[in-house]
């Protein structure tokens, strides 16, 4: 009797094992890439009270599995699985989340079974997260950030197609080695140059002057250009052992400027200040005196510009004498990210300027 029960149990186990194996085989029998979707919140996961409400909704309310389930066409391009990293309105993004995200992405991409990453994100600080990851991801595998301008509950929501396109970009062999990419509104932009240019329109992400890298045309991923600046696998920055980033503030220049915010930043312990100057990183004379005092105290000052186009290059002799660095074509919010990471490596001004010239 016992023997028979044992035999039945053994056979059941064998059948179950074969069953599990064949399900596994069915899942893996396709040649599709394995893409991990990391969710951070944003309007793409936003929920409003009505389908015509485009503002005042709750960003990040909807979980990643619901977003994935809403776009079953994704399965034609990749085997995807989701992971909820946080549920933020991206206006509240923090260095802590960036460090967590950077470490998690590096962990995932080191795994041979992961072919690429998609990150869902709010659009307000999407360009900053993209550039941070562009500098700290240690892999050539595709990393694509996506958001939406209309909440998931809206009529003509842009999130579902943006998400499908992001998976298409992350699944494309042509995306390998291109650095972190932003896929929105049928266009692919590079992390370094992309910026949000319109407060409400779906066609908000642009790379001013330098242009976007490619299209997603009727589902086809087509690249035309790529960034020449160092990124990802070629970057010298590493978040592996970092638990915080140096304190760096942006101060916005304007007519009738004074030294109040600069002195306050120094008093608060800033290790670096990005001055979003007028024109070619020009600094109001009142602010210039405060910035020169700051450099005397060891604070690294980088001249950036509030203009939004062009590069910041050497100008006044007094800027050179005061050891202010040039922010190249990075906008102030991205210059802050590069300076934070630079300060994790060195406080040598020549070295930091080299980094601004290379990344
Ligand atoms: N405030 C939202 C966010 O950045 C806006 C958006 O996602 O479009 O999370």
What is the name of the CATH architecture of the largest domain?
3-Layer(aba) Sandwich
Rough outline: globular
- Number of H- or I-type helical stretches: 10
The ordered string of helix (H) and strand (E) elements is HEHEHEHEHEEEEEEEHEHEHEHH
Determine the structural class based on helices, strands and strand pairing. alpha/beta
What ions, cofactors and ligands are bound?
aspartic acid
Strand arrangement, largest sheet? 2-1-3-4-5-6-9-10
CA-to-CA gap between the ends? 74 Å
Main β sheet profile = 8 strands, mixed
Return the average pLDDT rounded to an integer: 93
Determine the CATH superfamily of the largest domain. Answer: L-asparaginase, N-terminal domain
Reported by name, the CATH topology of the largest domain is Rossmann fold
Radius of gyration: 24 Å
Q: Which blocks of ≥5 consecutive residues have pLDDT under 50? A: 6-27
Tell me the name of the CATH class of the largest domain: Alpha Beta
The number of strands is 14
Helix content: 25-40%
Structure description:
The chain is an alpha/beta fold and 359 residues long. It has two domains: 32-234, Rossmann fold (3-Layer(aba) Sandwich); 248-358, Rossmann fold, CATH 3.40.50. It has ten helices and 14 strands. The strands form three sheets. It has an eight-stranded mixed sheet with strand order 2-1-3-4-5-6-9-10, sandwiched between helices. A four-stranded parallel sheet has the order 11-12-13-14, with helices on both faces. Strands 7-8 form a two-stranded antiparallel sheet. A hairpin with an 8-residue loop joins strand 7 (195-196) and strand 8 (205-206). The longest helix has 27 residues, at 2-28. Mean pLDDT is 93; it is low at 6-27. The structure holds aspartic acid (ASP). Residues 42-43, 59, 89-91, 122-124, 147, 149 line the site of aspartic acid.
């Amino acid at each position: 009797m016992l023997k028979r029960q044992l035999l039945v149990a053994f056979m059941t186990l064998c059948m179950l094992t074969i069953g599990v194996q064949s399900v596994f085989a069915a899942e893996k029998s396709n040649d599709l890439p394995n893409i991990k979707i990391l969710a951070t919140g944003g309007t793409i996961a936003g929920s409003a009270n009505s389908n015509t409400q485009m503002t005042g909704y709750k960003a990040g309310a909807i979980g990643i599995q619901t977003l994935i389930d809403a776009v079953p066409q994704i399965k034609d391009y990749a085997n995807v699985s989701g992971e909820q990293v946080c549920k933020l309105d991206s206006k509240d993004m923090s260095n802590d989340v960036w460090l967590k995200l950077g470490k998690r992405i590096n962990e995932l991409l080191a795994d041979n079974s992961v072919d690429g990453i998609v990150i869902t994100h709010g659009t307000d600080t999407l360009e900053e997260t993209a550039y941070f990851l562009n500098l700290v991801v240690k892999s050539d595998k595709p990393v694509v950030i996506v958001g939406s301008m209309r909440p998931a509950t809206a009529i003509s929501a842009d999130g579902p197609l943006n998400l499908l396109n992001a998976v298409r970009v992350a699944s494309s062999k042509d995306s390998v080695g291109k650095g972190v990419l932003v896929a929105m509104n049928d266009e692919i932009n590079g992390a370094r140059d992309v910026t949000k240019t319109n407060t409400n329109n779906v066609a908000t992400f642009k790379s001013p002057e330098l242009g976007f890298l490619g299209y997603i045309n009727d589902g086809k991923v087509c690249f035309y250009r790529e960034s020449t600046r160092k990124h990802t696998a070629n970057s010298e920055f590493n978040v592996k052992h970092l638990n915080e980033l140096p304190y760096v503030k942006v101060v916005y220049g304007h007519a009738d400027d004074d030294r109040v915010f600069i002195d306050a930043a120094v008093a608060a312990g800033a290790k670096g200040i990005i001055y979003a100057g007028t024109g070619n990183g020009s600094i109001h004379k009142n602010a210039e005196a405060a910035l020169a005092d700051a450099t005397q105290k060891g604070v690294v000052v980088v001249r950036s510009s509030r203009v939004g186009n062009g590069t910041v290059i050497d100008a006044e002799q007094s800027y050179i004498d005061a050891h202010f660095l040039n922010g190249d074509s990075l906008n102030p919010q991205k210059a802050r990210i590069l300076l934070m990471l630079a300060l994790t490596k060195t406080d040598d001004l020549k070295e930091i300027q080299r980094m601004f010239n290379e990344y």
